[in-house]
Amino acid sequence: MTIAEPSQSSMLDLLTGFIVELRAAGLPVSLTENLDAMNAITHIPIEDRNAFKYALAATLVKNNAHWRAFETVFEVYFSLRGPAYSLGGGDEPLDLADDDTAANPEAAGAGSGGGGGEALTPEQMAEMLFKALQQGDDAMLRALARQAVTRYAGMEPGRPVGGTYYLYRTLRNLDLDNVLEKLMSEAKDQAPAPLTPLEERLEQDEFQSRVDKLKQEIESEIRRRLVADRGVEAMAKTLRKPLPEDVDFMHASRDELMGLRKAIYPLTRKLAVRLARKRRHGRKGPLDFRNTVRHSLSYGGVPADPKFRYPRPAKPEIFVIADISGSVAAFARFTLQLVHAISGQFSRVRSFVFIDGIDEVTRFFEGVEDISHAIHRVNTEADVVWVDGHSDYGHAFEVFWEKYGREISPKTTVLILGDARNNYHSSQAWVIKEIRKKARHVYWLNPEPKAYWDTGDSIVGEYGAHCDGTYECRNLRQLEKFVEVLE
Questions:
Q1: What is each CA distance from 22 to 50, 64, 72, 235, 240, in whole angstroms?
Q2: Of 78, 98, 131, which residue sits at a domain end?
Q3: Do the Cβ atoms of 245 and 476 come closer than 8 Å?
Q4: pLDDT of residue 463
Q5: Of 11, 84, 417, 440, which sees the most CB atoms within 10 A?
Q6: CA gap 411, 313 in Å, rounded
Q7: Mean pLDDT computed over 26-52
Q8: Where is this region: Disordered (predicted)?
């Protein structure tokens, strides 16, 4: 397949659109980085796809958590184009000369076997797929991925169907689970001696990685054809996903929650450094007269350079009171995890969780290296159900005040986590008022959008009247901004 080299002006237009989409996806791309990217691509031909991709990544991606978003946008904006990616027509030849082999026709010819895709029966194609996976022939796998999409995806121009549907249809016809079983069976039969459990596991992992690579090739092929049919901007908008720090806690998918768990560890280190620096460079203390005179003697006492006593910054004590009912459980877990991960910046952290009853869970976090294990114990062992297990903020706050109210001091900062949806029970807002009288600060963090506050059974305004601040914390980015104001 021949790849037409774009003109310089069209390339700049394409790169401009690419960077605009990266910014829309949440990646911070400065003007300087934009210019660096434009300069980088003048030295690397677009035909060298991997080098071109990593040159852009080196200039535009600064956070490992942003790599997946960059890769998705890159695949959309720099998809291969040509007749092979049109949705009309029938089977195309089984051409191996793609982006990686176009520069090496001998390698392409060696893997093709001289066959055309339109002449292959399903049985022949299955046999070629088996051999390509068995031998790890990447060029053949890419060619078979294109042919499989043409034969089995059923893609039609203008049809408003997502790529997931086409991917499902293609994979269902290939039956890769059965192919994987045959690969393992063949490997065992060809082995000179019975495979040990370790050898068998290594063999299986290797075949599985090849199957996963084939799936990625099929997914990329479908994406390229959709781009050719619908246009770059439309596909980029369809595939746009939030960055881990922008994922909504309350609506995160399973994969997004895994991304959040990975993103929270570097975030805790960054916040700990910021909080420590903030306290270290806090406001000055009283004038240190003796030190001032001593330093001024070297120049006769005039002019005087005032020296101050820097008070040792006091670390606040943190009380976290978190609603862990189903609607806000994910938000509570990540906030507890974040606060305990930076607990070294506070004199003490105590944690309380509630639904309609309340329980202190500080003990689960003491002496624990893996905070996720402590969070699991909170979810399974905490005594938080009083009657029916539906949120009752009023009763939970009353019990908290009776049991722990006397332990709140002027050094205590209280964080209350929840959506304040009280199921129309009594609010007992007087408890928050009394806590505010004794505590240093009281903050309420709500994972719901502000537009939903004080609607239905939400009474966040009633509680917020007695707090120093009520914050919307729907994602890690907003949570990070809040933690920075703690003092």
A1: 19, 14, 10, 13, 9
A2: 78
A3: yes
A4: 94
A5: 417
A6: 12
A7: 87
A8: 91-120
Token pair for residue 129?
A: 């797929």
Q: What are phi and psi of 485, to 5 degrees?
A: -90, -5
pTM above 0.70, yes or no: no
How far is residue 274 CA from its own chain's centroid?
22
Domain ends where: 210, 239, 268? 239
Distance CA 222, CA 213 (A): 14
Q: Tens of pLDDT along 416-458?
A: 988 999 989 999 999 999 999 999 899 999 989 999 999 999 9
Identity of the residue numbered 69? A
Q: 330 in helix, strand or coil?
A: helix
Nearest to 239 by CA among 10, 486, 68, 99: 68
Residue 365 and residue 334 share a domain: yes
Distance CA 342, CA 225 (A): 47
Q: In which band, very low, low, confident or very high, does the pLDDT at 460 lie, cut at 50, 70 and 90? A: very high
Q: Helix 31-41 vs helix 49-60: angle between axes, to the nearest 10 degrees?
A: 160
CA proximity to 236, closest of 21, 12, 69, 34? 21
**Residue 257: helix, strand or coil by DSSP?**
helix
* 466 belongs to a structural domain: yes
Q: Please, which residues bridge with residue 351 across strands?
A: 320
Q: What percent of the chain has pLDDT over 90?
A: 15
How would you write 259-300 as a 3-class SS string? HHHHHHHHHHHHHHHHHHHHHHCCCCCCECHHHHHHHHHHHC
DSSP string, 343-364: GGGSSEEEEEEESSSEEE-HHH
What is the tens place of the pLDDT at every residue in 227-260? 777 767 777 666 667 777 778 877 777 777 777 7
The full length of the chain comes to: 487
Q: Are 478 and 472 in contact (CB under 8 A)?
A: yes
> Average pLDDT of 453-479?
90
